[in-house]
Description:
It is a single chain. The protein is of the alpha+beta class. It has one domain. The protein has helices at about 5-10, 30-35, 90-95, 145-155, 160-175, 180, and strands at about 40-45, 50-55, 60-65, 75-80, 85, 105-110, 115-125, 135-140, 190-195, 205, 215-220, 225-230, 250-255. Strands 2, 4, 5, 8, 9, 10 and 12 form a 7-stranded antiparallel sheet that branches. The protein has a 6-stranded antiparallel sheet with strand order 1-13-3-11-7-6. Strand 6 (about 105-110) and strand 7 (about 115-125) form a beta hairpin. The model has no long low-confidence stretch (mean pLDDT about 95).
Amino acid sequence: MQEPTDAAQRRAIRPVICYPNDTLPRPDLTLYRAARAASQKTGEVLVPPRDAKCFRVPAGHFFRISSVEGPQVGDLNLWNAHDLSERFYSGKSRALHGTHLGVGERMWSSFPTLRPMATIIEDTLGWYGIDDFGGSVHDVIGTRCDPYTGNLLSGTQYHHCCHSNLTRALADETGMILTEAEPNVHDVLNVFMCTGFTRDTGQYFMKASPVRPSDYLEFFAEIDLLGALSACPGGDCSSEHSSDTAACYPLLVEVFAPPEGALADWESPSVNGYDRSHGR
């Protein structure tokens, strides 16, 4: 197709940020970190390789996801512990913060609540930044490896991809059957995964994660949370996923409770203030 004569001028138009986030409510990281420093561990869940486990975190508590034994990425789902219809909204989190989340940024919930669910307060991979390929860590662009795409692309019936792992974990935690649990599984925060988009074709890519044992990502629970974490069958995602080829390792989830009064007058965020009239 022939380019128009003004093609260069059209391409040269400067971009505009869709959602300027200067007016977003800012988390008080100083308060959160002081409370975390005084917190006591209340529980832990070890997520086996190529599997998923659920965990619960009360509002005002903390949870940490750690690499143990070897480099491993994880797929994280979050729900309101009392209402599974309120769940992590990766697309809106991406629109508000960017393709990869870091310290001070939040996991936002789905419509109509649209409020902070969890705030990242520490990240030992925060040094990584954006590499020469455009890759970075902790993305909200990948959806999770799943058996449907695997079947579409290669005709496989692989059952230990992250979608299936999260489905089984949620069913085990809630007592739902698999067909009831599956619709609640949603797009993820890809913890520790190093991803980006290719410059030439715009395709989603993965590369070897920089995560090493003792690295962690730590969160403050803004509401009562039910979480599910899958230790991806891709291991460090340096080659492939949705198979048993990669070396895989467990991930550790730890929960911490602050002492009474450590959060001063902090309150769990209320649901979004839109009146839901939709012009009627």
